[in-house]
């Protein structure tokens, strides 16, 4: 009897061991294979650290499939046609509607049909190991991955876990909203047909870009803005000029307006505003902010709040956890792909240095400090006209206690602007710190200004003195000559 009992006990122990998830140790585990996670993995692998990357959807993330790339593919024909319509001799040839089917087909090609084979090939080329499935923290330095079949695998990190899971669309709490099947940024950039009527709720970047794109593709667009203006995080003239152009293109913009209720019946969306107005449409897009994708990644197992933004220092290390990094949107510092990739380079370098017990350079503008998140964040809004900015607006600089002067120039006065055609409308504002006469920020609105913002980013980041900028000669005749006009306006004020 004793022998039989021992045999059964041994069999039970063997069965228990066989059902335990397989465990693999790495130097670094990255949660999320968007551009941010890819860049963290690239940096750690380049330094020789073994790295695992976990992805539950598609490698390449939001930017590649539902944000930067497809949205700009939709917008590029819109902006090209707008430029052409300003040019005598060409404008007569482009008065007809856009070929929406061709635009959407080209957009589809930018996402590779929402397949990630090429992205997987690139990631695997770095030497990182890709794990498909849902990754959750299950304790310090430990991630459990559950694949589509329910099988689990435990990944442990000797040095670091990097959370790069990004953000998702935030929807308002309206009764029955799920039944309406609203668009978010994902549907707005991946839709395969043009809605006859589209309501856009919001006044930020996604709202203005998608209003611009779908209006040009044939939708009748109504924009509902809770605040007083579009693009309210930029200088006031940015939203004003974009609103004027959208209105001229046929869109209706209602500021100071909120959605009281929304329903869908027989395919038609009905919105009732807080003022009692009833607006019908075929689709409704809510572009009302972002939430972190941290609700189901196991934060509670390490004492953090599920669904929260993650607080980090300038090396992107999560407060109170010397092995955990939060990179990109999840830390809420700057919800932009290029800024997230910048953070990834910083975080990757910090992880590598700490793994080697090397000196961490976390002082401002050091190798392991994402200082630009505070001082020099560039952004381009790809509407017609484009809006581009870097650094602080006048209001932000004043709130921060800086003694500054705003210098304004009408972009149409620049010789290069005239080459863009008749009726060029644009504006530039430079924010000068009067203590050291460096530039704190620059905002430009007008056709083609998106390609100017990097020069401003360099000036702000490098804290180039105004006296030195006089020796940076802009090429004639280009729009970049606005720099000379701004310097002259500052001198002559």
Automatic annotation (TrEMBL):
An example Gene Ontology biological process: 2-oxoglutarate metabolic process
Intrachain S-S bonds: 63-68
FAD/NAD(P)-binding domain location: 26-338
Region feature (Disordered): 1-22
A single GO molecular function term of this UniProt record: dihydrolipoyl dehydrogenase (NADH) activity
Organism: Streptomyces haneummycinicus
Family assignment from sequence similarity: Belongs to the class-I pyridine nucleotide-disulfide oxidoreductase family.
Sites where the protein binds NAD(+): 202-209, 289
Cofactor: FAD
A Pfam entry, by short name: Pyr_redox_2
Positions that bind FAD: 72, 135, 165-167, 329
Cited Gene3D superfamilies: 3.30.390.30, FAD/NAD(P)-binding domain
The Pyridine nucleotide-disulphide oxidoreductase dimerisation domain, residue ranges: 377-483
Keywords from the named record: FAD, Flavoprotein, NAD, Nucleotide-binding
Protein name: NAD(P)/FAD-dependent oxidoreductase
Bias (Polar residues) ranges: 9-22
Cofactor note as given: Binds 1 FAD per subunit.
């Amino acid at each position: 009897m004793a022998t039989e009992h021992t045999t059964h006990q041994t069999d039970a122990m063997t069965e228990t061991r066989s059902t335990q998830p397989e465990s693999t140790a790495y130097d670094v585990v990255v949660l999320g294979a968007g551009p941010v996670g890819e860049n963290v993995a690239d940096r750690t692998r380049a330094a020789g650290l073994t790295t695992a990357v976990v992805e539950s959807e598609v490698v390449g993330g939001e930017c590649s499939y539902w944000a930067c790339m497809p949205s700009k593919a939709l917008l590029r024909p819109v902006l090209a046609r707008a430029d052409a319509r300003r040019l005598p001799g060409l404008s007569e040839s482009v008065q007809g509607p856009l070929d929406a089917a061709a635009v959407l087909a080209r957009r589809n090609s930018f996402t590779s049909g929402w397949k990630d084979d090429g992205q997987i090939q690139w990631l695997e080329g770095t030497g990182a190991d890709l794990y498909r499935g849902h990754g959750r923290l299950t304790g310090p330095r430990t991630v459990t991955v559950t694949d589509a079949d329910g099988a689990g695998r435990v990944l442990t990190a000797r040095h670091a876990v990097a959370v790069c899971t990004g953000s998702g669309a935030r929807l308002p709490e309206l009764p029955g909203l799920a039944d309406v099947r609203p668009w978010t940024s994902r549907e707005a950039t991946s839709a395969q047909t043009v809605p006859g009527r589209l309501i856009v709720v919001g006044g930020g970047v996604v709202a203005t870009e998608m209003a611009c794109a779908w209006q040009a593709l044939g939708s009748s667009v109504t924009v509902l803005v809770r605040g007083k203006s579009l693009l309210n995080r930029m200088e006031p003239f940015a939203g004003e000029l974009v609103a004027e152009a959208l209105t001229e293109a046929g869109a209706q913009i209602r500021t100071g307006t909120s959605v009281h209720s929304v329903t869908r019946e027989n395919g038609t969306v009905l919105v009732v505003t807080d003022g009692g107005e009833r607006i019908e449409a075929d689709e409704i897009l809510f572009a009302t902010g972002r939430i972190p994708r941290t609700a189901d990644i196991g934060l509670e197992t390490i004492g953090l709040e599920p669904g929260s933004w993650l607080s980090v220092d300038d090396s992107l290390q999560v407060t109170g956890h010397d092995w955990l990094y939060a990179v990109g949107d999840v830390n809420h510092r700057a919800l932009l792909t290029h800024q997230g990739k910048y953070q990834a380079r910083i975080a990757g370098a910090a992880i590598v240095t700490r793994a080697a017990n090397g000196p961490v350079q976390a002082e401002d503008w050091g190798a392991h400090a994402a200082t630009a998140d505070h001082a020099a964040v560039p952004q381009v809004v790809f509407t017609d006209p484009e809006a581009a900015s870097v650094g602080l607006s006048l209001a932000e600089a004043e709130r921060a206690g800086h003694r500054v002067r705003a210098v304004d120039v009408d972009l149409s006065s620049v010789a290069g602007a005239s080459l863009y055609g008749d009726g060029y409308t644009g504006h530039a504002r430079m924010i000068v710190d009067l203590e050291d006469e460096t530039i704190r920020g620059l905002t430009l609105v007008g056709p083609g200004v998106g390609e100017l913002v990097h020069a401003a980013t360099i000036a702000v980041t490098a804290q180039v003195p105004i006296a030195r900028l006089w020796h940076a000669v802009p090429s004639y005749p280009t729009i970049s000559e606005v720099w000379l006009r701004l310097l002259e306006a500052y001198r002559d004020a």
